[in-house]
C-alpha cells in the first residue's frame, strides 16, 4: 500500500470515529491555499515560486528548498487536531521552536479526496446515526428500574437530554456510569480531578463524545470546567480562544451529545448547571439487594458459581460491613479456589484477623 493510500485510509477512519475532523481538514486546506497564494521565493522574492507539498521551486533563480510552512497559531483549529494530522501523515512539521510551530500539507490532493470519499460514504449511509444502545444495558444491575429506564430513554432521545444520578456511595451510580462506558460506543469517561490540564475543554475539543460521562461531578471545582460543561450542555458547542483567534467546536451528531453524570452531594454543583439535568435520586442498597447484585455480577463477569457468589455477597455485608457491590468483585478476584473456605480466608486477610 502506498503512503498516499495509508494517509487516505487514516483520514477516513478519523472522520468515521471523530466527524469534527472534516471541518478541521477543510480549515487546514483553506489556510494552505492562502499560504501558497501569498508565497514568495525567500531568496529572490519571486511570486512565481511553485509550492508542492513541503517544498518549493523558483523558476527565476532556480532555488529548491523546504517551505517554512503555515504558523500553527494562524490555523483556526485546536492544536491537538494538528498533531493528530501529523501523526497520520497528512501534515508535516517544517519548523519548531519554543514559541512557534509551522506546518505544511504533504499532499493536498489526498486531503481533498478524503473529504469527497467521506461525503459519498455518509450520503449512502445517511448523515450521522443516532446512538446505538444495547437492549440488555444494565442487565447486571439489580433493581432501580426507574433510574435505568430514564437513562436509556435519554440515550435514545432524538435531542440532547442529560441525566444526573444523585446518591450516597455504594448506590450503583458508578456501576451505571461504567456500564455505559463499557458497552455504548462513542462515550468518554471523565473522573473528577483526573482530566487534562485544560480539563473538559480539551476532552470535548479533542474527542467530541456522543456521550460524556462524568463521575463525581460534585468534585469538579474548576470554574472553567463548569462553564465549558454548561455551554456544551445548553448549546452543544464551545468557543475556544487561541492566540487571539476563536474556534467553535460543535457537536456533530444528529441526536446531540448526552451528558450522564453522578454525584454524592448535588448542592456542591452550581444551580444553573443542575437545572440542565434530569435528576434521579438513588438510595443506598439494602443488604439483600447487595447480595442479588453480587450474584448477578459475579456469575456473569467473574465466572463465579452462583451459590458461591451469593455467599460472597453475604459475608461482604455481614463481615466487611459493606454495601458496595465493588467490594464483592474485589473479594471474588482475590480467591484462588472457588470454595467458601477460600472466601473466608480472603475476608480474614482483609479484616486483618
Describe this structure in words.
The mean pLDDT is about 90. α11 packs parallel to α13. The protein has helices at about 5-15, 20-40, 80-90, 110-125, 145-155, 175-185, 200-205, 225-235, 270-275, 285-300, 305-320, 325-335, 340-350; strands spanning about 50, 55, 65, 70, 90-95, 100-105, 160-165, 185-190, 210-215, 235-240, 245-250, 260-265, 275-280. The chain folds into 3 domains: about 5-125, no CATH class; about 145-280, P-loop containing nucleotide triphosphate hydrolases (Rossmann fold), CATH 3.40.50; about 285-350. The longest helix is centred in the N-terminal third of the chain and has 18 residues, at about 20-40. β1 and β2 form a beta hairpin. It is α/β, with parallel strands linked by helices and about 350 residues long. The chain has a 5-stranded parallel β-sheet with strand order 8-9-12-7-13, with helices on both faces. It has a 3-stranded antiparallel β-sheet with strand order 1-2-3, with no helix packed on it.
Strand content: 15-25%
Radius of gyration, taken over Cα atoms and rounded to an integer in Å: 26 Å
Mean pLDDT: 88
What is the CATH C level class of the largest domain, in words? Alpha Beta
Order of helices and strands: HHEEEEHEEHHEHEHEHEEEHEHHHH
What is the domain total for the residues?
3
CATH level-4 homologous superfamily of the largest domain: P-loop containing nucleotide triphosphate hydrolases
The helicity comes to 40-55%
Q: Decide which structural class fits the backbone.
A: alpha/beta
CATH topology of the largest domain: Rossmann fold
The CATH architecture designation of the largest domain is 3-Layer(aba) Sandwich
Helices, by number, come to: 13
Cα shape: elongated
Biggest beta-sheet profile: 5 strands, parallel
Give start-end ranges of low-pLDDT stretches.
none
Strand order of the largest sheet: 8-9-12-7-13
Number of strands: 13
Instruction: Give the termini separation.
Output: 63 Å
Amino acid at each position: 500500500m502506498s503512503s498516499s493510500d495509508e494517509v487516505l485510509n487514516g483520514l477516513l477512519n478519523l472522520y468515521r470515529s471523530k466527524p469534527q475532523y472534516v471541518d478541521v481538514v477543510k480549515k487546514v486546506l483553506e489556510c494552505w491555499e492562502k499560504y501558497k497564494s501569498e508565497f514568495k521565493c525567500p531568496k529572490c522574492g519571486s511570486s512565481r515560486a511553485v509550492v508542492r507539498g513541503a517544498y518549493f521551486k523558483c523558476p527565476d533563480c532556480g532555488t529548491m528548498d523546504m517551505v517554512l510552512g503555515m504558523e500553527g497559531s494562524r490555523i483556526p483549529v485546536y492544536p491537538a487536531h494538528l498533531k493528530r494530522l501529523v501523526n497520520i501523515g497528512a501534515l508535516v512539521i517544517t519548523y519548531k521552536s519554543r514559541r512557534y510551530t509551522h506546518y505544511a500539507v504533504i499532499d493536498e490532493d489526498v486531503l481533498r479526496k478524503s473529504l469527497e470519499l467521506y461525503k459519498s460514504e455518509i450520503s449512502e449511509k445517511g448523515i450521522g446515526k443516532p446512538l446505538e444502545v444495547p437492549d440488555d444495558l444494565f442487565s447486571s444491575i439489580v433493581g432501580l428500574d426507574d433510574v435505568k429506564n430514564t437513562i436509556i430513554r435519554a440515550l435514545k432521545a432524538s435531542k440532547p437530554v442529560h441525566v444526573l444520578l444523585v446518591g450516597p456511595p455504594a448506590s450503583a451510580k458508578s456501576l451505571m456510569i461504567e456500564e455505559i462506558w463499557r458497552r455504548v460506543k462513542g462515550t468518554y469517561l471523565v473522573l473528577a480531578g483526573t482530566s487534562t490540564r485544560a480539563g473538559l475543554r480539551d476532552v470535548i475539543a479533542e474527542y467530541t463524545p456522543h456521550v460524556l460521562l462524568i463521575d463525581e461531578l460534585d468534585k469538579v471545582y474548576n470554574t472553567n470546567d463548569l462553564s465549558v460543561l454548561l455551554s456544551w450542555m445548553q448549546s452543544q458547542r464551545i468557543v475556544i480562544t487561541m492566540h487571539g483567534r476563536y474556534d467553535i467546536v460543535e457537536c456533530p451528531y444528529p441526536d446531540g451529545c448526552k451528558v450522564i453524570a453522578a454525584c454524592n452531594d448535588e448542592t456542591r454543583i452550581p444551580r444553573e448547571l443542575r437545572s440542565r439535568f434530569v435528576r434521579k435520586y438513588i438510595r443506598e442498597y439494602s443488604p439483600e439487594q447487595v447480595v442479588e447484585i453480587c450474584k448477578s455480577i459475579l456469575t456473569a463477569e467473574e465466572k463465579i458459581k452462583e451459590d458461591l457468589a451469593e455467599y460472597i455477597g453475604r459475608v461482604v455485608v455481614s463481615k466487611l460491613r459493606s454495601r458496595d457491590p465493588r467490594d464483592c468483585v474485589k473479594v471474588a478476584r482475590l480467591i484462588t479456589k472457588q470454595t467458601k473456605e477460600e472466601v473466608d480466608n480472603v475476608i480474614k486477610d482483609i479484616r486483618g484477623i
